[in-house]
Amino acid sequence: MKEELEPHVRDISRALGGKVSEEEIERELGNYLNVYRVSLDTAKRSIVKKHGGNPADLSLGITKTVRELVPGEQSVSLLARVVSVNEKEIETEAGSKGILYGFLGDPTGTAPYTAWNPEGLALAKGDVVRIQNAYTKEFKGRVEVHLGNRAVVTKEAADLLPPVEGGRLTVPSGPATAAKVVDLKEGLSNVGLTARVLSVEAREVNVAGEKKTVRSGVLADETGKVQFSAWKDFGLAEGDVLRIEGGYVKSWRGIPQLSFDERATVAKLATEALPATAELTQSPRMWIEDLAERGGGVDVTIRGILIDIKDGSGLVYRCPECRRVLRKNVCRIHGEVQGTADLRVKAVVDDGSGAITAVFGKDLTELLLEKTVEECIAQAKEAMDQEVVRDELADLLVAQPVEVRGNVTSDDYGLMIIVDTARVLKVDVQEEARAMLEELEG
């Protein structure tokens, strides 16, 4: 493992200009990977940011499959076959400029690409290429690969990937990997899942210049819920029990999402194959450690100790245009504005396996305080201190056992739960200890 990480340790050191020793970088990288359970790419960018560097200076990308690509990556490596190549002239401030665009693919899927500096770049349909230092963006719901100034493209042996047939890559056949919802995490492919449709709706998106209908919603089994996107009309209806073979998992807005298209098989099973919808709508209790490994989750419940109230909690004022929290009546986008009062809590909850940032909105904060936002404004005016509300929240909540329920997202800064419901628990310590002991004893 140490040998595998050595080039990435050196890469981080180069990006930081040698300001941090390689021993310290190796220690931090090990913590991110083994303790916080984040991806190597995320760990590298987080360490560079932490020490004041620019993640764009990283030169060694992580080789990914097309399905593993997510928007906003700055140093991507990809082994792919060129599915198509097109030329186009665009107008820039410096005048007319030629670019190349088309599609790249591998056995997991295809993605559009744009080469902004095609001089000396010999791309031909069918080529297998290794791309380093590309970056990704999102356009109309799809991840795009961009080859900029730092990108390096080298031609590889043609037999490294399946051939292109009829404009797309052939996909090796094989049995799908059986999984439960709780097992789904970013990067998994050829997944086999049995789940019930809790909700489904159709929406129209624009993919590569053509309109396409995608059906999205929520699936569930006994272990939890997952958002899904179906890129073919499988005739899905709310309440259906499905057996999906050939799905793949990508992160969408910080939460794992199951996607499946015409390459997947979807069969409808007897409704008795899974518990009834009412049972599956319950929110499963999960450990923070497991959520970190999965990369988030839909409608989960966490129990833990609220150990801290973060700055920016309590009575805040928001920009009426973009809803960002103001600092001294100034929005970083719209300048000095007349703010709108709001209440919120940004807290840290620890369940013994890890910690998570929990964000409570206005309605929940009012319930916890048993005060309205107007009463909090009056309280702050009387005390001549806006922080009086935050202090009251700290006295009320810090060191209290709590249960929170909502969607958990994951990004470079860790896990965050947007809390839908919350309650302070009244814990019988002896009973909890007895239950834990029974669980440990099997």
List keywords for this structure.
5-stranded mixed β-barrel, single chain, 442 residues, alpha+beta, 9 helices, 5-stranded mixed barrel, globular
Strand fraction band? 35-45%
Q: Portion of residues in helices?
A: 10-25%
Inertia-based shape: globular
Main sheet properties: 5 strands, mixed, barrel
Number of strands: 24
Count of alpha/pi helices: 9
Q: Quickly give the structural class.
A: alpha+beta
Spatial extent as radius of gyration: 25 Å
Taking all residues together, what is the mean pLDDT? 85
Report, as a whole number of angstroms, the end-to-end distance. Answer: 34 Å
Low-confidence stretches: 166-173
The side-by-side strand order for the widest beta sheet comes to 2-3-4-6-5
What do these coordinates show?
This protein has a five-stranded mixed barrel with strand order 2-3-4-6-5. 30% of the residues are buried. The protein is α+β, with helices and mostly antiparallel strands and 442 residues long. The protein has nine helices and 24 strands.
Task: Give the topology, please.
Blueprint: H1 2-15, H2 22-34, H3 40-50, E1 62-64, E2 76-92, E3 95-106, E4 109-115, E5 128-139, E6 142-147, E7 152-156, E8 164-165, E9 168-169, E10 177-178, E11 191-207, E12 210-221, E13 224-230, E14 241-252, E15 255-260, E16 265-269, H4 277-280, H5 288-294, E17 297-309, E18 314-318, E19 330-331, E20 335-336, E21 340-350, E22 355-360, H6 362-369, H7 373-383, H8 387-397, E23 400-411, E24 414-424, H9 429-440
Parallel strand pairs: 1-2, 4-6, 10-11, 13-15, 22-24
Antiparallel strand pairs: 2-3, 2-5, 3-4, 5-6, 5-7, 8-9, 11-12, 11-14, 12-13, 14-15, 14-16, 17-21, 17-23, 18-21, 19-20, 21-22, 23-24
Helix pairs in contact: 1-2, 1-3, 2-3
